[in-house]
Design a protein that fits this description.
Blueprint (H helix, E strand, L loop, with lengths): L7 H13 L3 E6 L7 E11 L4 E12 L5 E6 L8 E5 L9 E6 L7 E2 L9 E11 L22 E10 L16 E8 L25 E6 L1 H4 E2 L16 E2 L1 E2 L4 H11 L1 H25 L6 H30 L4 H30 L4 H27 L4 H31 L43
Parallel strand pairs: 2-12
Antiparallel strand pairs: 1-2, 1-13, 2-3, 3-9, 4-5, 4-10, 5-6, 6-7, 8-9, 10-11, 11-14
Length: about 475
């Protein structure tokens, strides 16, 4: 291709494409706070020989000791990710280890083999320790270098080129994606016995965010160039946390892509959120609505809620089989999954006993208090699930506000219902064919809030209207 053969519009478009192409960058500056600290930059280059794109990656990792490891990887999860894992002893005089691995699931990552690459190829161009206070181009090793601005003593500087990288057959690598998912993970306290490329790595912490792992998204299209000459390695701009990257999916296309990347996570979160934020609380409100068929609506609605929850339990169980069962979120979910069926059985037994002896038994009180506990644990587990999948502070604050508002509204509704029952004229609740089966002196059927005098005649209006 020569410039003389291109029309003027084509020349302008080509120059514009070169002008707007720039490296993208994602960094986390957490070393002063004992958190993960790394930077990565990417340039994608169209290779006319392979008719594919080459990925040029620069990466730095701040370290003060030989403990632990730091990793980034393509895709939204470990399974199928092309992972770049950095570890080593900066004081040993040896280069840092850049171990390139993949995993079939949430298991020990294994070294990538040529057969895994699907036609792509990898070359490590640089792997060196630098004193944290040195210039970007200075590569030297010192026994006691000055601490850099981040408080780190050393910086591991690494660079890799992945030729024809979109041919990686596992987690898709799309050179034209405006929101390519990536993952990061780290362990800050493992003492490795030997610094080999296949060293066994201890598990990262389960907590998302700075705790142990997280996601970020890269505008790969922004970094893509089709220039004839190969690009230089992407520079890392000091102090820049995000350039063409984000902690959340970029744009509407990015959100749709993230849904497709983690369908089980999305399904689990949506159905559990619907069950505990809306369906189960609405079933409680219906029980205290004062309607003639309140009890019937209550048990029917809670049955539907339980069925919806069962979908979430099944999807959560499938994910737990892949990732292991070890987080607080999973244990709380197990409690809820077992408690809800027990809660239903207790409600049924309460109903049978109440229509025979006209008073509440210990089963009634267990049913009431277990219902309260299940909803509270369900709300808490919605938040812990959001933390586990890496939602940011804004999302957690919004959900916490929603739950708090819902709790206040639910308590107010129950309080108003109890006051309404107390102030109702005597005998009004016992009129009509719908309540003809009630007995004088019967206790209220369900007093969810437990604030009404159960022995008062005024509370008889709370007896089940069947």
């Amino acid at each position: 291709m020569t410039w003389t053969k291109l029309p003027l519009a084509g020349i302008i478009f080509h120059l514009l494409a070169i002008a707007i192409t720039e490296p993208v960058q994602y960094c986390r500056f957490g070393h002063p706070d004992g958190e993960i600290d790394f930077c990565m930059g990417i340039i994608m280059h169209r290779n006319s020989t392979t008719d594919s794109h080459d990925l040029y990656l620069s990466m730095t990792v701040a370290r003060s000791s030989a403990l632990g490891w730091t990793a980034i990887g393509t895709g939204g999860e470990m399974a199928g990710s092309l992972m770049f894992i950095v570890y080593g002893d900066p004081k040993s005089g040896e280069s840092p280890i850049l171990s390139i691995r993949t995993a079939d699931g949430h298991h020990q990552p294994r070294l990538v083999t040529p057969e895994d690459m699907g036609g792509a190829d990898l070359r490590v161009l640089q792997a060196d320790w630098m004193p944290a206070g040195s210039g970007a181009g200075l590569v030297q090793r010192s026994a006691s270098p000055p601490a850099g601005p981040s408080g780190a003593d050393y910086i591991a500087k690494l660079s890799v080129v992945c030729y024809a990288c979109p041919r990686w057959p596992a987690a898709p690598i799309d050179a034209l994606s405006p929101s390519q998912p990536w993952i990061w993970a780290w362990n800050d306290n493992q003492e490795l016995d030997v610094f080999s490329f296949d060293a066994a790595l201890a598990m990262h912490k389960h907590h998302a965010g700075n705790g142990g792992w997280g996601n970020f998204y890269v505008d790969m299209a922004r970094s893509t160039s089709d220039a004839a000459r190969r690009p230089s390695l992407p520079p890392l701009r000091p102090g820049v946390a995000q350039l063409g990257t984000s902690n959340t999916p970029i744009g509407s296309a990015g959100y749709l892509s993230s849904l497709r990347t983690k369908p089980l996570v999305v399904l689990h979160g949506c159905v559990m959120g619907a069950a505990f934020l809306f369906l189960f609380p609405l079933g409680v409100l219906l029980m205290r609505s004062g309607r003639a068929n309140a009890f019937k609506l209550h048990w029917m609605f809670q049955l539907v809620s339980t069925a919806v929850m069962a979908i979430g339990v099944i999807s959560g169980t499938v994910m737990s089989r892949e990732r292991g069962f070890s987080t607080t979120h999973q244990w709380l979910g197990l409690f809820v999954a077992l408690a809800v069926p027990v809660q239903g059985i207790l409600g049924w037994r309460h109903h049978l006993a109440f229509i025979q002896i006209w008073r509440r038994t210990w089963i009634s009180h267990v049913h009431i208090w277990m219902g309260r506990l299940v909803i509270l644990v369900g709300w808490g587990n919605v938040l812990s699930g959001m933390i586990l999948v890496g939602h940011g502070t804004a999302g957690l604050a919004g959900m916490s506000s929603l739950i708090t508002s819902e709790a206040i509204a639910l308590c107010m509704w129950l309080w108003i219902a109890s006051r309404r029952a107390v102030s109702a004229p005597k005998g009004k609740a016992d009129s009509g064919p719908a309540t003809a089966w009630k007995r004088p002196g019967a206790e209220p059927y369900f007093a969810i809030e437990g604030s009404v005098d159960e022995d008062s005649d005024e509370d008889r209006g709370d007896i089940e209207k069947s």
